[in-house]
Design goal:
alpha+beta, Deoxyribonuclease I, Chain A, eight-stranded mixed β-sheet, 23% helix, disordered N terminus
Length: 348
Amino acid sequence: MVEVGPGGHGRGWRSRSPLGLLAALLALVVAACGSVSSGPPPVTAVSYNLLHGIFCPRETDRCRLADRVDLFWDIVRERGCPEVIALQEGTRETRALLEERSATVCPRPYEIVAGPIETTLDDEIVLTSLPIRAVEQRRLYINFRKVLLVQLEHSSGPLDVFSTHLASSSDGAGRACAADCPPECLAAGAANVRQCQSVQVANWVGERHQGPNPALVLGDFNDPAGSFVYDQFVGRGFMDASLSAGNPECDPASGIGCTAGREDEELTALESPAYNENERIDFAFVVPGEAGAGCAGRVVPPHGAGGLRGTRLFADVANPFAATCGPEPAAICWASDHVGVQVELACG
């Protein structure tokens, strides 16, 4: 049963696999046993806007959503099965497709977590192989967008994960923050809807994050580095994980370091191996730990075979599992119009 509290806060919905809970608890026991010599294990998280496809032509089945979800899961497995994956643009159709492989794609099954407030068009979904302590959610200015908090149990202690998707031009991002503008937004100098939402998310992180361990703030913020939105987070001392790891800033001309920009209302770009990304609007912000933290929260640069581990872009290579990709019957090239970001935090 979902319990919703005052102001739109509430406990969320989850798809719980009994095997997943058992595996997660066993993993914590194993990690704890080894912590005397090695310290708590690292945690890897991903933020990924998995295109809902609702604006795609009807005959394309949401721009081949089923194929794109399958490709997403293949990338998850290739990246070593990150413990936390924050998805944006979640729908009931996407969630149903995710459930088909959530318990089998990786050694530790994923639980699928969503908040109690559903738009059915663009919701936050968190996939995790860690035990869940609590789920909370709050609405943002003009009430369509939201922020989701999932508090997880890591062997180093509680890990707070916040996920959001701020307004786009299609739902009034640039509309003036006028007579109904919340006091917290006016005090921060927010001029429009998206800016106000960023203030609300950053404030809520400050209110809800508990304990000395670091926290993660993940999402599609729809504004680049250097913007008012971005400064609401880095201005509070949150780390931009990508830059902290030494990765390059987005170069629109080459696409290097960029996370979004690909056409998202028809299949042409999704069925082309061309990168076609030209902006960085997806971020993983790290709230630094405090004295006594069980996890140091050091951002780990790319490493491992092919540099696929560590902190880097997520789905940034055209379908690497198929000899060719393109229009049907060929495999799909990209799982989304975004490539997402991946962050690894070292705890020891």
